[in-house]
Amino acid sequence: MRAGPKVLPFYLTLSLTISGLDGAVTDPVGYIDNWLVAGKKGSLPLPLAHAYTKLDDVVASGVSAPGESFVEYSTDLPGDLLGPSGSACLDIRSGAGSGQSLRVTGFSGRRVMFEGSPMFEIEPGTKVGVRPNWSLGALFGSPPTADILQGDSVEEADVIGLQDPATQTTREFFFKSGEGWREVGHEEEGDRSATAVPYRSAVQFFRRTAPDLSFVQVGTVPMYDSPQHWVKVWPGRNLLTTPFSPAKKIGELLVPASLVSGGSAPHSDSFRVVSEDAELSPIIYHHQSRGWTSVGGGATPAAETPFDLYTVLDFQRVGEVGFLRFNTDFLSNQSVSGRLSVAEQVVPIDPELSDFTSQRLGWRSEPGATYQVQVRPLESSLWNDLGAPVVADGEVTLARCAPEGRGIFRIVVR
User: Fold this and answer.
1) Residue pLDDT, tens place only, 13-65
2) Entry pTM
3) What confidence score (pLDDT) does residue 175 get?
4) pLDDT tens digits for range 94-148
5) How far is CA 91 from CA 63, 98, 298, in A?
């Protein structure tokens, strides 16, 4: 249950524009408000993605020469392709393997190399995007938002933990007052603001003191041709954020065929659902004959175990490296944008013009034109006006946004 005191939210800055104003189709800009309980080590889901770098060069034209562990584009790639963390994932956005994300291992000229093989062969023309991972500094700020507790040592500050399932290790960080992000145990090595936070991971967050920490995360909702998203998992523990979806229970969200199912939890992939107040569900697995099962049973059938975007999967993989499949509600950019009347025109939100930290969305505008910021709650198919209409007085317009819950934004010309 979501309850308890809240403090002024901070905003994570990211968005995505695929093309310009004329006939633009965009990855939606989404939002979710979260909170972390004082004195507890909670898990912070990060369901919204970082923006692409120079998307037109990286996605729109599709790949020209795919290989088993690389893709090539028809033009050279931008030098800042990997973003501030120097790491990224490869999103397969169309074709048979749509919905997968693979770790990028490097790029040169027109070629991007990635880790492992995709589940399906990548065909020429497939739209494949390189999405920079968050960096620690880009995600929480450097210096961080005033709501995150700084300190002269780790014993005085909020602590962020990053679990890497590929190496089965966890690193912890805090912001040293007046100096920068430091890694616990390696403080003398200096600033760690460029540390990567891989997409689809979740962040462990120890809120040291009262009040509870509350904030709104704003980001892009990656769109694929497929109604399922594929999330890579490694043997051992995987702390996962699931795709941006309105699914409310495990039986709706996770595809059993992507799991290792055995006769007991030790011989099956298993997981616990971690709520935002650090509470844990029973251990759940998919039994080879009985289906969804929880260890020790309980009043709630395992398939009905509540899960939503405010929670995290603490997942234990017993098999080899593979992919979990998650059902999603968003099948295409068009379905997320909603059905528009002939008179309606949606304007892309521009990340370079926005200031999400001060709760403002920015877009390119026509002076004198009227625009309306709208939100669509994730559980709804209806768009709602957010605030009053805005009359543009220049070629760039900004409007304040402070939604609650979870959903997506759009800007409509009135």
Assistant:
1) 333 333 332 333 457 788 888 888 888 888 888 888 877 755 555 565 688 98
2) 0.83
3) 96
4) 888 888 888 999 999 889 999 877 778 888 988 888 888 888 988 888 888 778 8
5) 12, 8, 38
The full set of domain ranges for the chain reads 1-39+215-222+343-414, 51-71+89-132
Q: How many CA atoms lie within 13 A of 16 on its CB side?
A: 29
Each residue's pLDDT tens digit, 142-166 = 888 778 899 999 999 999 999 999 8
**Residue with structure tokens 């090539």?**
72
DSSP assignment of 283-328: PEEEETTTEEEETT--SS-GGG-B--TT-EEEEEE-SSSEEEEEE-
Q: Which two tokens stand for residue 88?
A: 């990224």
Read off the DSSP letter of residue 100: B
Residue 247: pLDDT band (50, 70, 90) is confident
Q: Tokens 């973003």 sit at which residue?
A: 83
Nearest by Cα to 411 from 381, 376, 359, 380: 376
DSSP E strands: which ranges in 15-94? 29-36, 41-44, 70-72, 88-92
Q: Are 115 and 68 in contact (CB under 8 A)?
A: no
Tell me, what DSSP letter sits at residue 393?
Answer: S
Amino acid at position 128, single letter: V
3-state SS, 164-232, equals ECCCCEEEEEEEECCCEEEECCCHHHCCCCCCEECCCECEEEECCCCCCEEEEEEEECCCCCCCEEEEE
Of 412, 383, 384, the C-alpha closest to 397 is 412
Nearest alpha carbon to residue 345 among 281, 273, 410: 410
Q: How far is CA 377 from CA 17, 173, 385, 404, 406, in A?
A: 21, 33, 11, 9, 6
Note the pLDDT of residue 55.
53
**pLDDT band with cut points at 50, 70 and 90 for residue 245:** confident
- One-letter amino acid at 133 equals N
How far is residue 82 CA from its own chain's centroid? 16
